[in-house]
What we know:
Layout: H1 8-23, E1 39-46, E2 50-51, H2 55-65, E3 70-73, E4 80-81, E5 86-93, H3 94-124, E6 130-132, H4 142-151, E7 165-167, H5 169-174, H6 177-186, E8 193-197, H7 200-206, E9 213-217, H8 221-231, E10 236-240, H9 248-252, E11 258-260, H10 263-266, E12 273-276
Parallel strand pairs: 6-11, 7-8, 8-9, 9-10, 10-11
Antiparallel strand pairs: 1-5, 1-12, 2-4, 3-5
Helix pairs in contact: 1-2, 2-3, 3-4
Amino acid sequence: MSQIKLSNYYIKNVVKLALNEDLYPSGDITSNLVKNDKIVKVKLISNQHAVIAGLEFAKQTFKLIDNKIKFTIKKKEGSFVKKNNLIAIIEGKAENILIGERVALNFMSHISGVATKTNQFVKLVNKKCKICCTRKTIPTLRVIQKYAVKLGGGTNHRFNLSDEFLIKDNHIASSDLQTLVSLAIKSKRGRKITVEVDNLNQLNQIIGLKFNTVLFDNMNNKTLKAGVKMAKKYYETEASGNVNLKTVRKIASTGVNRISVGSLTHSATAIDFKLEI
């Protein structure tokens, strides 16, 4: 798996927001009933097979509530775990662990869900074909979701609208394809240019111009294969549209370099974890 790190500063601030959401204005009024200062040892267990991700978010959750809580990680971030595997041991005051339980598990469930779904796609394609995420992310959570994609073995597409030129169908409908590509080339300043086409006639209009990637959108595999053959001498090739676990292998077999999959981030199923006292 890709070994990448998010800064502690970023993780801490995101976790603070999540705890404020859960604890404002009166704290955890139920867990506050536990007033016996009992020290407990709690097991964090996976209820299903998954790529594990988000451990530092969980660890920071408990640390912000009570820095005396010990969070001992038993499975490496980005590793594959099986159902009933022990992921971590949390030791400290019962009341404080209960306060952070749901926030910690929410982070891990979602981040592991994105990583796991990405890895399912990656396993279905050959190593020459990259699985990419898109900007179809939950607002304000893009950093986390793209982090999870990389842990799952995927590749990050542009992070935001300033990163790269991506000339899409609605840009073309609002202007002219060749004009847009020419303007992007003139003002690229080191940034990459990707041009989306939905038919081979559009590709013929721009082939030979100096940009980086052709994005074939919603093409059947026969047309996609022909487009890849035309474009591969000049450009990196990418496919998008109607990509799922049933179709991705055939799309990859066309020889395309990259496949972008919106569902990695917009509809990944959460992984089920539990805390066991």
